[in-house]
Amino acid sequence: MRILIREFDYPFRSYTTIHVAGTKGKGSTAAFIASALNGHGYKTGLYTSPHIMSYMERFSISGHEVAESIIIEQVELIKQKLSQLASVDRTGTFSPTTFELLTLLAFLCFREAGCTHAVFEVGLGGRLDATNVIEPKASVITPIDLEHTEILGKTIEAIAGEKGGIIKPGVSVFCGFQKKEARAVFEKISAEKKAAGFFLEDEVDRLHSVASLDGTRVDLRFKGKEEISFRLSMLGDFQADNAALAALMLSHVFPEVSHDEIARGFSEVVLPGRMELFSKNPPVMLDGAHTPLAAQRLIESYSKLFPEKGILIFGSVTGKDFRRMAEILAPFFKSIIVSRPDTERGSDPEAVFAAFKSLSNDCILELDPAAAFKKAMAASGGKLPILVTGSFYLVAPIRKMMIGGGKD
Q1: Beta strands 228-232 and 276-280: pairing type?
Q2: CB-based contact 175:190 (threshold 8 Å)
C-alpha cells in the first residue's frame, strides 16, 4: 500500500480522513459519522466493507454511490500504473490483493470527486490493514470481541493490540464500550503515542434508547453537555451505542457540526444487512452478526421486537465461534435452519449444524441458502418472524433472491 499511495501522490492528503476499527458496529459508526459531516455541508466519502449486493456499495459520496464514470476512469489509471510497476519488478513479488486495490480505488475516487472529508472503515484488524496508511484527524474504535483469531490472535488483548494499531501519534482516539482487557491495551497504546484517549463509558451521562419496527429513538447526554435526542432508521438498541460513539468523536473533533445536523444525519443512515427489516409480512430480518458479541447484541434487540419465537437461518464461515453463537441464539427460536455461506473462504456447515442440533429439537441442515429461505418461509406460515444471520456471505445470497437478483 505504501508503494501504491506513493505512486499516486498520496491521494488521501487532499481531504480530511477519519479511521474506524473494531469488531462490531464499525460500519454503522462510520456511516453515522459520514452522514453527519454530509449534513454539515462537507462533501464526504465513505469506504466500508463487505458489500451485500454490489462492490459499488463500498464507495459512497454524500450518501450516494460513486459515479461509474469516476470508478472506470480511476480503475484504468490503476491498471496502467500496475503494468508499469510490474515491468520494473524483477522479483515478481509485487502483487496487490483485491482489498488493497479497492482501498486504493476509494482513495483515488474521493480525490477525483473533490471530497473534503472521508471516513474509512478498517477491513480486518487495523495495524496491518490496507487502510492503515492514511493520516487521520481522528481514530475511532468500536467494541472488541474475539474474531479472526487465526490471524489477529486468540485473546482480547491480542486482538485489541491489532485494532489499536490505527492509533497515530498525537491523534485523538475515541473508543466505544470496551471490555476491561481491551481498554487497558488502548490506554497503553494511547499513552505511548501521546494520543488523547476518550472512552464512551467515561463521557456519557445518559444514554437511553427505545427500539421499534419503525426505528430507534435515542436520548443522549454527555457529561457537562446538553441532551440531544434523535431517531435512527436503523433498528436495535446497540445502534444507539454506535451513534453515541460517532457523536462523541464529532463533538470533540468537529464542534462546528450542530446537534440538528447530527440528528438529521444519523436518521438518514440505512445499511443493507445490518439489522435490516427487509419484509414485514412475514417479518424477515437480515443481520451479518458473525461473533458472539454481535450475536448477543443482535438477539437482545431482536427479541424485544419479536417476542414470539420464529425461524432462524444461520451460517458461519471457518474460524468463527459458531458454538458460542449457537448457545446465544438457539433458545430464542422455534425452528432453526443451518445453511452454507456463499464464499470461497471455507465453512463447515455440518459442524455448525451439530452445534445447533444439540440445543434444538427442531433443527435441519439445508446447504443451499435459497432452499433454506424457502423452507423458512413455509415454516413461517406467513406470520412467524425469520432472522437470517451468522455471516454476510449468507445474508447476501438470500437478500439477492428476495429482490430478484442484483449486480455482482
Answers
A1: unpaired
A2: no
Domain harbouring 85, CATH code: 3.40.1190.10
Q: Give the count of beta carbons closer than 10 Å to the beta carbon of residue 183.
A: 19
Q: How far apart are CA 226 and CA 300, in angstroms?
A: 29
CA geometry: angle at 22 spanning 18 and 23, to 5°? Answer: 150
Domain boundary among 244, 267, 290: 267
Query: Which pLDDT tens digit goes with each residue over 237-270?
Result: 889 999 999 999 999 999 999 999 999 999 999 9
- 368's CB contacts (< 8 A; 6+ apart) are 339, 340
Closest to 106 in 3D by CA, of 83, 127, 78: 78
pTM value?
Answer: 0.90
All 3 cell numbers of residue 155? 485473546
Same domain, 312 and 380: yes
What is the distance between the alpha carbons of residues 216 and 218, in angstroms, rounded to a whole number? 6
pLDDT in tens, 296-337: 989 999 999 999 999 999 999 988 899 999 999 999 999 999
pLDDT band at 92 (very low <50, low <70, confident <90, very high): low
3-state secondary structure 164-227: HHHCCCCCCEEECCCCHHHHHHHHHHHHHHCCCEEEHHHHEEEEEEEEECCEEEEEEEECCCCC
Q: Report the number of distinct structural domains present in the chain.
A: 2
Q: Which among 114, 111, 177, 170 has a CA at the least distance from the CA of 138?
A: 170
